[in-house]
Amino acid sequence: EFDGDETDPAVAVELDGVTKRYGETAAVDDVGLRVREGEFFTLVGPSGCGKTTTLRLIAGFEEPTSGTVRFAGESMSGVPPEDRDVGVVFQSYALFPHMTVGENVAYGLNFADPPEGMTRDERVAELLELVDLPDAADRDPESLSGGQQQRIAMARALAPGPDVLLLDEPMSALDARLRERLRAQVKRIQSELGITTIYVTHDQEEALAVSDRVAVMNGGTPEQVAPPRTVYREPATRFVAEFVGDNNVFAGSVVDTPAEGAIAVDVDGGDETLRVRIDAGTATSVGDRAVFCVRPEHLRVASAGEAAGDEPAAPAGENALRATVASAEFLGETTRVTLDWGDRELLVRAVDPLDGAVTVGFDPGDAHVIEVESR
Ligand code: ATP
């Protein structure tokens, strides 16, 4: 895991104990984050969690109530946005309608010189090439699709050669198909330039798809900062487990510690006792409260139909949960099925249609323990 500090040359942007209050509300609450040089770093979380405010503090549109924002180790306190070497792209593309596409991109250069040995026109052509719209210079911005306009907005933000690119929900105004195409383009442009990029989105799937690391925010604070795979496989908190992807989160009482690295839990609202793997070295005893999660794709349907009511038919060593189908959503490749199990629901993925009584199984090793609290 990345663990530089302000003296580490690889740290491009650092937030050190940053808080932003609006009256009584702390929109951003004592945030510490380090974004490394060249990284694609994403702030993701539900509406109101403080993503946009965090980005505005980095851009310099807001000053922190307390704490420090640093760029390459240097405090940005009192430094206005235009002196921060950042390029910003907002949700609304905000291209100037009375200018051509080329003029819009050139506008980004207004206060900067083109790179050595290059004319303004050559720089504009280079940027249009970068965003894969080489022939758009003379076009009217309004003749472009939303995704194309957003690429022009990126070209304009990149024109002066900023150190850091800040993107605030740049795709939220686009339809799903365009969003997927644009996010691949954004990722390509970012890695071609190797530019440090901080991206804000409420869309967890988008965050997983494009980022080197993700900060999952809740109530003004990141609850986990890690690469997408880690956030998905080893959520640090219950909030992260429930926000990122479909999940089954269980809470219950430890009723047995049968072997090193394993516990048996009576889950609140559930029927069968479940066995889950736990990191060896985590001290647990009977009576502790445990919270763990199992992804729907790890809850395998072991048997369906009438027979399911009789004997659990999960492979040896697996947990077997007897449940009944409550509802199903056909998603194309798979179906997302909701099951009633005891007094609660389970989410599973199925290929074939399911109905009636089923037994689902999961390997104790596919559970991820989020926390154990002793009682
Ligand atoms: P969204 O995705 O809805 O934009 P967000 O995660 O970006 O949400 P912020 O816009 O950063 O969240 O807002 C965080 C909190 O701070 C919210 O409760 C919001 O109402 C509050 N807030 C943000 N800006 C201001 C402001 N200028 N004045 C007062 N309160 C504000």
Structure description:
With 375 residues, the protein is an alpha+beta fold. The chain folds into two domains: 232 residues, 3-Layer(aba) Sandwich (Rossmann fold); 127 residues, no CATH class. It has a six-stranded mixed sheet with strand order 6-7-8-3-9-10, with helices on both faces. A hairpin with a 2-residue loop joins strand 1 and strand 2. Helix 2 packs parallel to helix 4, helix 3 crosses helix 4 and helix 4 runs parallel beside helix 5. The longest helix has 18 residues. The protein starts with 10 loop residues before the first strand and ends with a strand. 40% of the residues are buried. Bound molecules: adenosine-5'-triphosphate. Adenosine-5'-triphosphate (ATP) binds next to strand 2 and helix 1. It is found in: Cell membrane. This is Molybdate/tungstate import ATP-binding protein WtpC. The complex is composed of two ATP-binding proteins (WtpC), two transmembrane proteins (WtpB) and a solute-binding protein (WtpA). Part of the ABC transporter complex WtpABC involved in molybdate/tungstate import. Responsible for energy coupling to the transport system.
